[in-house]
Amino acid sequence: MGSNFPVQPTSIPQTIAGRTISISRIGDLPTGDAGYRSGDRGSETVVLTGLACDIQFVTRGPDPAPKVPEDTVGRQLWRIFVLANAVAVNAIKRNDVATDDLGRRFKLNDMYWGAIDLVIEAELERG
To answer: Where are the domains of the chain?
Structure first.
């Protein structure tokens, strides 16, 4: 009797992932006094859509050190897991924005490329 294991990443159904995200990239930030972490959503360019993923809450992070009024107190830190073969290496970059199928927006901080999956460290955007 044959075995179906190990399961190849390409054979894992999208429904196991649970969520889908699209990745957008903010254009060049304005110069001058544009506000802290200012980015114009109008200048976002969608670079990837329909990525199956799993999004997991990690922790409520510490308050940011600079104590700027716009900083979120107790930032929400998340991990987004995407199958490695679903995305070209380096197609997703630091400071890109992921928007999930629930409309939540995440600022992408760091990416870890593995043999099976891509793990993205992200912070939930507020407001």
So the answer is: 17-28+37-62+73-124
